[in-house]
Fold:
Amino acid sequence: MADDVFLSEGRLVTDEGALTVAALGSPTLPTDVATLQAALTALTARVTVLEAGTVSVASYGATGAGIADDTAAIQAAIAAAPTGGRVWFPPGTYQVSAPIRLRGGLTYEGPGHGTASSAVIRQVTGANIAGANGVSGILVAGAWATNAETCDTPIRVQGLEIDGNAANNPSSDAAGIVVCSFWSTLEDCYVRDAPSHGILLTDVTDDGTAIGNSASENRIYRCRVLDPGGDGIHQRCQNTIAHQDGYCVDNVISGGDTGIRFERGSGWVFRRNHTYGGTGHGIYLERCYATIITENEIEAFGAEGGAGTYWAGISVSQLNGRGSHVIGNFVGSAEGDASAGGYQYISVSAASGQADAHTVVVGNIIHGPAVTSGHGIGLVLQADFGGSVLNADIAANRVASVDTARYVSTGVVLHEPVEA
Structure:
């Protein structure tokens, strides 16, 4: 018998498709009024009413049984949803063999992840979803897929689980979710085993063309990324204005390469994220100004090691003008490879040619392993790239179990409190 019944677009549907008498677990209708009333009462208790503007993918033939290919049915539901509406994924596993194109102006929602009632969108074994320019996705922005000249209108993706099924798709380059839009929100999503990045924010479409507008002010909240083939959350910015001014908050990323990597961190808030077990950097941010990095927990960065290679727990490359803040973070590492060039727990640098870069580094805890590699540096402050200057306000940072507490290059102007 079907477990879930939904009222969608004036019809009763189940998580197995259209509602039938058999789906209710009774092959015959009751003959007396009392029994019929009792049956209707029991059915009412099982119905989840989907509000106006919501379409269920089950209404369009998606089975969620983990067997049939649900790609076409999901796309049909998306096409039918009214602008400003919601596409609902009942609990189940939805097999897809091609990228699901997300229309702008819609919410895509499931019941939440990590429970028996999750809605999982899974790349079919052998689908090997791949893009024209080295990256594709399981859920992708419509503008990305159609090589549009401008980004999409806002989307919201919430409560869905994405399974990239990388082990069974060896030639796939699919990220879990690809965003090429403005004012969009990813919340309470779980992306696992993506062949490429877990979540990709990009201003570059499938054919490699950069969009002409900004695709900014996006939000990523409470998402979980497990074992991506690339970075946990990756932002690509080719046109120099895209993906500014957003929020990346309360996310957990384990495995993969770098936990969070942004090519343009300007105006973003990175707060209470937890990265661990990655082979690369913890949080790596380029082209920052007015950027806030606070209360993050970075564990075990740089696990890949490698002779002469440098790894950072938190790395910030700062532009002129509006200063950035690196405050109240914890950064730790096992420093597993003594041949590595260096483990830089917190690294702040003035980008090349920036003569008036400012950063505040306060109240961070840096802790190395019990047995150090000989190459750990707690706090790295750098400038003098093309005449750059970094003004750094430093206070109350606790550094323990690293070989060198601090490295300061030429071109750095330190501002520290004077002890009485």
